[in-house]
Write a structure and sequence with these properties.
Alpha-Beta Plaits, 4-stranded antiparallel β-sheet
Length: about 70
């Protein structure tokens, strides 16, 4: 299992509700959450064999900013 972490511009629960179906379409995601209290609005994904660019592309296509945070 891999943990992927992204900076986003997701601001509230309404946007999370909109985003949820988009993330459900991505094969390999086991769980995800967004820390709305963090200044980077961190999206954390637990996944199996998922390339970070897939997540970035899906969020960008849904109208959100998304960039992978690396160590």
């Amino acid at each position: 299992m891999n943990i992927l972490v992204f900076k986003t511009n997701i601001e509230d629960k309404k946007q999370l509700k909109y985003l949820s179906p988009h993330l459900k379409l991505i094969d390999g995601i086991l769980a995800w959450n967004v820390d709305l209290h963090d200044c980077d609005r961190v999206l954390r994904i637990e996944a199996e064999q998922l390339h970070p660019n897939t997540v970035v592309t899906v969020l960008n296509n849904a109208g959100y900013y998304c960039a992978e945070l690396v160590d």
